[in-house]
Write a structure and sequence with these properties.
nucleic acid binding, about 25% strand, 7-stranded mixed beta sheet, 6 helices, methyltransferase activity, SAM-dependent_MTases_sf, alpha/beta, Rossmann fold, about 190 residues
Length: about 190
């Protein structure tokens, strides 16, 4: 696993053998960042279910202002911190170890807002992803001009949600699907 572009281009991230995680492949990551390239500079990013930090570190390398990482596994958090140190990005990041729902609630109470929220829970936890999408789509954690991205198994299709946020793009990449949500009211304003 390596950083594809930006200030840390070419750096190989540490991924210890034996950890039960599914890092986002370079192909999926490259497709993702090609799609959101214009959204990244100076963005405040939330990387939930961060694993070793692959997505958030790529965002920082490409010019994101700050990334908040959420990861439940203490072992994964140790690797994540090691990768941030390797890329000298500790000062632009915050790392939370614990349950994503509880940490999202804490961030909400702190009035935090993000331009991009990236969700990548374990593929088999589709109910968790659906519930989290429904909670986030109209929450104050995401700016109205923001973007919510869900990485999930190609076999999962999120339910339609009653929200001003709509599925604006979907990319199927082998066993992985990336679903992109934008606020349709903001989309209409930019088209006028």
């Amino acid at each position: 696993m390596r950083i594809i572009s930006g200030a840390c281009k070419g750096r190989k991230l540490f991924v210890p053998k034996g950890l039960s995680l599914r890092p986002t492949s370079d192909h999926v990551k490259e497709t993702l960042f090609n799609i959101i390239a214009a959204d990244i500079p100076r963005a405040e990013v939330l990387d939930a279910f961060a694993g070793t930090g692959n997505i958030g570190i790529e965002a920082l390398s490409r010019g994101a202002e700050r990334v908040v990482f959420i990861e439940k596994s203490p072992a994964h958090v140790r690797v994540l911190r090691r990768n941030l140190a390797l890329c000298e990005l500790e000062s632009q990041s915050e790392v939370y170890c614990g349950d994503a729902n509880k940490i999202l609630l804490k961030l909400h109470k702190l009035n935090r807002q993000f331009d991009i929220i990236y969700l990548d829970p374990p593929y088999r936890q589709t109910n968790m992803l659906q519930d989290m999408l429904e909670q986030l789509l109209d929450s104050a954690l995401i700016r109205k001009t923001g973007l919510i991205i869900a990485e999930h198994a190609h076999t999962f299709t999120p339910r339609d949600m009653k929200s001003t946020w709509t599925l604006s793009d979907r990319r199927c990449l082998g066993d992985t699907t990336l679903s992109f949500y934008r606020n349709q009211l903001m989309e209409k304003r930019t088209q006028l």
